[in-house]
Amino acid sequence: MSKIENVRTILLSANYGHDKHPEILECFPNGPKRTIGLVEITLENGVKGYGEGYLAVFAPIVFKSIVELCTPYLIGKDGFDILRRYKDLCSVCDYWSLQGAARHSTSAIEIALVDAKSKSQKCPAYKLFGNSNKQNIEVYGSGGICDTKEHFIEELELLKSLGVKKYKIRSVSNDINKTAWVLNKARKYEIDVAIDMCQNLADPPINATSVINYINAVKNITSEKILFLEEAVGPMDINGFKKLKENLNIEICGGEVITTPLEMIRRIDLDIYDFVQPDASVIGGMNAVKEVFLYARTKNITPVVHAWGGPVAIMANYHVAFGCNGNLVEFPMIPYKLEPIMFEDQRIIKNGHLRRPELSGIGITMNDKIEKNFPFDQKAVYSCVVVDRGQPIDDYWKE
Question: Which strands sit side by side in the sheet containing 4-15, from one edge to the other?
Fold first, then answer.
C-alpha cells in the first residue's frame, strides 16, 4: 500500500507533422502543433506515475477540469488498489459522462496509477497484466494520410527500413485509383495494405453499400488483397458493420472511439468485427483494455490496440498488448517532437516488430526540462470539424 499524495495535470504542446501535411491542413486550424494531456500522480513513497487521456488532443482544458474534479477523491487513498480507485472515479463521473470525455480523463488517472504501482514494484507495467513471455510484437505502420505519390513512397521507404510489412492508409470512397495505386506500389516493397476510412469523424458517414461499391471498384483495378478495413461506416451503424462483414472478404475492424469495455463487449457479441481496437487512453485505462482482450478471445476475436495518442498513451497500450499476449500493434507514422524524447530507448522497432520495453513502469521519460521546453499552447488543438480542401483529382493516381 502507498497512499496518493498529489495529483497534477500537465499539458504539453509540441511540433507535429509539417505545414503542408494533409492532416495538419484538415484538422489543425492553427498549424502543425499538437497538445497532449498527462496526469502525474505522486505516491507517499515518492514514486511518480504518468498517464494520458486522448481527450486532451481535442479539448485540453476540459481534460484538465475533469482531472481536477476527480482529484479530491484520490488524495490519501491507496494508490496500489487501482480497480477500487477507478470505481470511485466512475462514481464521480458516470451520471453525467458514462461515455465520452470523462472516460478519457479517468483513463489517464488509471494509467498513471499503473505506472506508479509498477515503478514501486520495480517491474515493467506489462507484468501487471499477464504472464506472457512474448519478446516482440509485430507492428503495422499507421500513416497513409498523403496527397502525393512521393509522400506515400517516403512512408513506404520508412517502413522498409524498419522491416515493417503492414501499412494502414486513409482513404474515402472516391479514392478508387489512389487506393489501387498504393496497393500496387506497396506490393513492390512486399508490404500489405489496410484501409482506414475514418468514418468516426464523418458527418454524415457513408453507408455500407457505398463502401462495398468502393471496394469492388478497387478490385476491378488491382488484384492486390486489402489487409483490413477500419471504421468504414459510422461508429453507430451496427447494421452497416454487419453488412460489410457479410459481403466483403476483408477483415472488418473498429472500436477506437468506444469508451467503455461493456459497449465493446456488446459489439463483440453482435459479431460485427473481425478484430477490435481498444485504446487505454479512451476506454478506461489499461485494465479496461485487458478486460476487452480477455473477452474477445472467448469469441475468437483478435484485439489489436489502437495507439494514436501521445507517447504515454502509446506505451500504455503497448504494455497491455505485451501483458495480454497481443499479436499486432499500431505504429503512428506522423513525426511528433515529444516521441523520441519521452520514448528514449523504450520503443524499438526492428525487423517489423516492437521490442518488449523493460524499464519499470510504462517506460516513459518525464521531467521538469520536458515540461519547461514544451509549454501548453492553447491554439494547439485538433479540430473534428474537418476542413474540406476540395475533391482530389483521382486521375492523378491512374497507372
Answer: 4-15, 33-43, 48-53
Q: Is the domain of 83 the same as that of 157?
A: no
**Is the domain of 115 the same as that of 143?**
no
Residues 168 and 108 both lie in one domain: no
CATH of the domain at 319: 3.20.20.120
64, 382, 199, 297 alpha-carbon torsion, rounded to 10°: -50
Q: How do residues 74-121 score in pLDDT, each as one tens digit?
A: 999 999 999 999 999 999 999 999 999 999 999 999 999 999 999 999
In this structure, the answer to whether residues 28 and 62 fall within a common structural domain is yes
Q: How much is the pTM?
A: 0.97
Q: Which residues constitute the domain of residue 21?
A: 4-122
Number of domains forming the structure of the chain: 2
Cβ-in-10-Å burial (0-12, 13-18, 19+) of 19 comes to exposed
Within a domain: 161? yes
Mean pLDDT of 318-336: 97
**Amino acid present at 331:** F
CATH for 49: 3.30.390.10
389 part of a folded domain: no
* pLDDT at 144 exceeding the cut of 70: yes
Confidence at residue 393, expressed as pLDDT on a 0 to 100 scale = 66
> In the prediction, which pLDDT does 126 show?
97
